[in-house]
Amino acid sequence: GEDVEQSLFLSVREGDSSVINCTYTDSSSTYLYWYKQEPGAGLQLLTYIFSNMDMKQDQRLTVLLNKKDKHLSLRIADTQTGDSAIYFCAEMDSNYQLIWGAGTKLIIKP
Amino acid sequence: GAGVSQSPSNKVTEKGKDVELRCDPISGHTALYWYRQSLGQGLEFLIYFQGNSAPDKSGLPSDRFSAERTGGSVSTLTIQRTQQEDSAVYLCASSQQGGNEQFFGPGTRLTVL
User: Fold this and answer.
1) Fewer CB near the last or first residue (10 Å), C or N of chain B?
2) How many Å apart are CA B113 and CA B15, to the nearest integer?
3) Which residues of chain A lie closer than 8 angstroms to B45, CB-CB?
4) For the segment A25-36, what is each residue's pLDDT rounded down to a tens digit?
5) Alpha-carbon Rg of chain A, whole angstroms?
6) Is there a contact between B25 and B96 (Cβ–Cβ < 8 Å)?
7) How far apart are CA B42 and CA B5, in angstroms?
C-alpha cells in the first residue's frame, strides 16, 4: 500500500538551516503537506505543494519536490528554538485521504 | 467557533468501559476525519465523512470502534469495551468539500488503565 517515510530525529544548531526529508510511494498523489506539532498542541499546517510544482517558498520555509524520485523536503532557514517540534510529512491520495509519515522530531541545540 | 474543537481534552477510563469523543468541525466544512496518534507514531486514519455520502470506515481497527456524524456537523467517535492499546491521542480534522487542506482540532488524549 501507500507509504510515507521520514527519519525520526534531526538535530541542528540554532541559526543553522534545518532540512527535513520525506519519501513517498504513491505516484498519483495530488498534494503534499508539511504539518508541525508542538508539545501538547494540535497539528498545524505549515505549507503544502501541488504535485505539479517543484518548489514553494514561504518566508523561512522552502519546500522542494522531486516527483521523479518521490522525495519531498522542508528547509527551515535560520532555525530558532521556537521551531522545536515534530514535523509530519503527508501526501493526499486520489481518494482525498492523507497518508502520513511518522514525524521527524526537530531538536535545536544552542 | 473559528476552529475545530474536540472534547474532552483528556479522558482517563478503566479497561472495559465505553467512551465517547466529540468533534465540532469548522462551520461549513463538509468533510470530517478521525485519526489516531499513538505515542511516537504518525497519524493512523480511522474514518472519513463527506457530506451525506456513506462514511469511509476502512481505517477502524475493530468493531469496537464506531463513529457517527449528526446533521452533517458534529461527530462522535465511540469506543466500546476499551482496551489498553486504545490509549492514544484521537484527532479530528475537517475540510471543505474537495478542499486540499485539513484543519485539525487539539485532540483528545485517551488513557485506558
Assistant:
1) N
2) 6
3) 97-100
4) 988 888 999 999
5) 13
6) no
7) 21
